[in-house]
């Protein structure tokens, strides 16, 4: 019997990823802030729980959203670029591209997004890390655009792309882990007799994608955070930064892994749940 009620497939518009990422950031920004502060610790073993208590006790709950304007700007540059390129390229290929093709598209999209989003990412890291510093050493950016302007004015335009190579490498693996693995896991689940194209499938697929993305990107994420938070001239080369981090042992490259996963998993889940709702309700049907 033919299913006459089957709905036509709707496709995402290129900018849906940026909107969905910004929406997810509203909920996960405090976790991102904690991750940055843990990664910039060279000594000491303050746990995420202790860090949260200290921040709230000393500076109030509002401080957990320090740098939220830069987080929004980052999502509307970095995420919108990588999702836009991935969706447009994927949808331009007839039929359903195979997994390796999706990985390749995701890698290229991630490289572009990582480069475009580096200035906002840098300001985001600095604004989040500010609350850990003594008052006299804080940068005190008023908002993301103030941060961009002050970096340009005080440190030069090239400083805005400090850590761009690491950020781009991280973005490549992040996009592969999130987008191509999400699509592949979702396809496997829907092709099985146990799942349909619904919120449960989207949740399982996004949780898996978040775990893969965290594992792939954590070493680069640590290096990126340290490079962006460093003072001008503190590290003469990428290799010097790697050696500095390696003094903590192999796990130094996975510093903040648990809060990174605790932050990235909810962010990835919310991102794709929002994205799927945008696709279902506002997407378009190919003619």
Automatic annotation (TrEMBL):
Question: InterPro entries from the xrefs?
Answer: MCP_dom_sf, MCP_transmembrane, Mito_Metabolite_Transporter
Q: Where in the cell is it found?
A: Membrane
Coiled-coil segments? none
Similarity annotation: Belongs to the mitochondrial carrier (TC 2.A.29) family.
- What is the organism lineage in this UniProt record? Eukaryota, Metazoa, Ecdysozoa, Arthropoda, Hexapoda
Record key words, sorted: Membrane, Repeat, Transmembrane, Transmembrane helix, Transport
Q: Name one GO cellular component term.
A: membrane
* UniProt KW Repeat keyword: yes
Q: Which PANTHER family does the UniProt entry name for this protein?
A: MITOCHONDRIAL DICARBOXYLATE CARRIER-RELATED
Ranges for the Solcar repeats: 12-92, 97-188, 197-281
Q: Classify the main location.
A: membrane
- Record bears the keyword Membrane: yes
Q: What is this protein called?
A: Mitochondrial dicarboxylate carrier
Species of origin = Cryptolaemus montrouzieri
For membrane topology, the record states:
Multi-pass membrane protein
